[in-house]
Amino acid sequence: MVSKKKVDIKNYLKKRNVKRFSIFIAISFIFLIFSKLSNDYKQTIALKVNLDNLEDEIMLQNDSLNKLEAIVEAKGFALVPFIFNKTKAVDLDVKTHLSTEREHFVFNVQNHRFIIEDQLGSSYKLLSVKPDTLILPYSKRAAKYVPVILNTDIDFATGYDVKDGFSLDIDSVKIVGSSIKIDSIISISTEALSLNDVNTNIEEDIDFISTKGIEIFPKSTTVRAHVKRFTEGQKQVPVQIRNKPANTNINYFPKSVTVSYYVDLDNYNLIEAKDFTVECDYGDIKKNQTYFVPKITKQPEFVKRVGMKQKRIDFIKL
User: Fold this and answer.
1) pTM of the entire structure?
2) 142-229, which class in CATH?
3) What share of the chain is helix, strand, coil (3-state, %, to 5)?
């Protein structure tokens, strides 16, 4: 019995020693890593050049040329990200950092070395960079502005409608592509704005319908509309005859018509009969015709779906 206990104690001590040794090794390894990463190292990295403020119609010919090769010196900690990806982006402004020649941009690397240093950051010391001059070929596509057409498919809740129509952030877009393609385009439509049971104001981002081989700038717009509660109203409006010859006397019936309209509740009590004008044009009468076709020629801007119950005004010559 005593012998068995001694064996168990020895095994226990051995296990504890192994654990302590493992912890010691792990701590030593961590200190070693920190020590190594605290040293200075040289590293070659690729700088991917991104161009800002590039005109929409400009297309770079070869993206593989948009690179610089830099040798930097930095602490190991700063170089850790480059273990997985040895490329860093550098942003250049076309209008201020590059000179524009016919069919190519020129970036004088040595004269603008400070831009690269600033974007690398203070953790890196830039030792060298090549090539001395970066040449980026480009081509210029045709471009023009065309109006925007809103495409909607909206189902309003009962008694609700849009007041004052829809508004867009922009009324035209720039299209870019070959001159053959863009010459035939006269407008750009939005994707269908599809909404159901709408009873609140509308504010939606919506894309433009793309065309193969054509780029659109911008790609989308914001649609806004005030949605109000609407109701139907009616007014009795007198009929006016225009273009009647001075030597012609007629009698017509009815002398007034019922004009119906759809209006938001805020403006319902503001509507008066004098806000509408219903006219019959004597010049539109054909031979042996004994009636006029009345037309509403004036109405308030804020009313919708104006109509008349009477479709004809009968008359006789006296």
Assistant:
1) 0.64
2) mainly beta
3) 25, 50, 30
